[in-house]
Design a protein that fits this description.
The chain is mostly helical. The protein has 19 helices and six strands. The protein has a two-stranded antiparallel ribbon with strand order 1-4. It has a two-stranded parallel sheet with strand order 2-3. Helix 10 links the parallel strand 2 and strand 3. About 35% of the residues are buried.
Length: about 400
């Protein structure tokens, strides 16, 4: 059976990749950044195109996807997280991620609590939600008409694309394997720095650290193709980023802790802790390794990870190693304790601004009094931080 379009083998492959990339951008721009996190405003024409395309190629309902993703962030890495590999196991999430999505989509409480603000127009009620499976049937017919028998294979791959890459790779691998720029209180990882295959969703740790940012890349060498598409749409006034990841700003002449310092540190707390790791913890670890005996070197093996990782994410064996490490190396114990004290400042949800300011000033005074040069310099750097200019 031949279709209207006769293409060489590579032509069908190119068409498939283009179609699946449109689906990827529909998920990451419309469902994820626009609907779930309100980090992006899309022109109604663009928004509806993405909604229509998702109906054709995935059958996903906006309210269901948005609700499940918001719940994932609210209950991350707990038994209530719809798809945490930490709670449910990597095999379960990777191979059965789509089924976990379907199960949670039938949870009315999830839909009511986390689905606020999603589209509720005539098309959504009578077409997209009411007949979600109809779209993928229409897509099958279109593929068969255009490409003939091979269109069936292309359609099958289209249908498997999001369950594999979104449900399996991002939700599974993205919380199991990769590197971390920021030590947020979940197991999120950046899978690779080149977010070119699944629209920037590869940069999952960056997203969890700054969930309301429309931009997922944080380092100069990271690429977020979803952000590139946003910038293109913005050129034609079809998209407006509402919030974007920003780097810590400093005022070199500033030498005291004030409310500007406090605001900047709380807003960019994950960046502050990343700098603390690089400017305080790693130098202290390096010095201990220089003077360590063979026995001590064994204790210091892989120490970097356990000195910066959230203890809630550590298995018992790692917690035991951390305790032994801190017991045997005083300098590491001191810088680790100051790390915890600094984190505690922005964790005080009921504290007043004055109480937080006093705590930060006290932290700097105590850090400088330790006589540890890296702590003294870091304290000086903290005082130069200012809020991002709008």
């Amino acid at each position: 059976m031949f279709g209207i379009l006769q293409l060489p083998w590579w032509g069908y492959l190119v068409v498939l990749l283009v179609l699946t990339q449109i689906t990827i951008f529909s998920v990451t721009l419309y469902l994820h950044r626009c609907q779930a996190h309100r980090a992006l405003e899309l022109h109604p024409i663009v928004s509806h195109f993405f909604r229509f395309w998702l109906w054709l190629t995935t059958g996903m309902v906006t309210k269901e996807w948005t609700s499940i993703h918001r719940k994932h962030h609210a209950k991350v890495e707990t038994d209530e997280d719809p798809h945490s590999p930490i709670a449910k196991g990597i095999k379960k999430v990777f191979f059965e991620g789509a089924e976990l999505y379907r199960v949670e989509s039938r949870n009315k409480e999830t839909m009511e609590k986390y689905g606020q603000g999603t589209p509720d127009d005539w098309m959504e009620r009578h077409i997209y939600s009411a007949h979600s499976a109809m779209g993928i049937v229409v897509m099958l017919i279109i593929n068969l008409v255009l490409f003939g028998t091979i269109g069936l294979t292309m359609w099958a791959l289209q249908m498997a694309w999001i369950p594999l890459f979104a449900a399996g790779v991002v939700n599974g691998i993205g919380h199991y394997w990769g590197y971390r720029n920021f030590e947020c209180e979940d197991a999120s990882r950046n899978i690779i720095p080149l977010g070119i295959f699944i629209g920037g969703e590869e940069l999952h740790n960056n997203h969890h650290a700054y969930a309301t940012s429309a931009k997922f890349s944080a380092k100069w060498w990271e690429i977020d193709t979803g952000w590139l598409v946003i910038k293109l749409l913005q050129t034609f006034r079809l998209a407006v980023p509402k919030r974007v990841f920003s780097k810590l700003q400093t005022l070199p002449t500033k030498t005291s802790i004030d409310t500007d310092t406090l605001t900047a540190i709380i807003t960019h707390r994950f960046q502050v802790m990343a700098r603390y790791t690089g400017e305080v913890i790693l130098p202290a670890l390096q010095e201990e390794r220089k003077r360590a005996s063979k026995t001590s070197l064994r204790l210091l093996a892989r120490a970097r990870t356990i000195l910066v990782r959230e203890t809630t994410l550590m298995p018992t064996a790692q917690k035991t190693r951390l305790a032994n490490l801190l017991e045997n190396f005083q300098s590491l114990r001191v810088v680790y304790q100051f790390r915890l004290k600094l984190q505690d400042i922005w964790s005080r949800s009921t504290a007043t601004q004055k109480e937080l300011l006093d705590a930060l000033q006290e932290w700097c005074q105590q850090a400088e009094a330790t006589g540890i040069e890296t702590l003294r310099r870091f304290s000086g750097h903290l005082k130069t931080y200012v809020p991002q200019e709008v």
